[in-house]
Write the structure tokens for this entry.
Amino acid sequence: MRSYHHRDYFFHPCQACGAVANLTRNTPAAGGSERRTYECRRCGQVNIYDVAPEAGTPWTVIDQSSPVS
């Protein structure tokens, strides 16, 4: 399994199962921030984060969706 840092651009820990979630979409957001969408390959959880341009600012989860069973 690929190791990653907590603030890796392409990979982020899944909020549901802790596995590696992959970056699937990156779009600009208000105030110079980015909206990053990560999808977990293991459980299908999708998390959307609002990421500020400053490195020390925490990521804010703005949407979460679980796969439909």
User: Anything to note?
Assistant: The mean pLDDT is 82. The beta strands are 11-13, 20-28, 34-40, 46-51, 60-65.
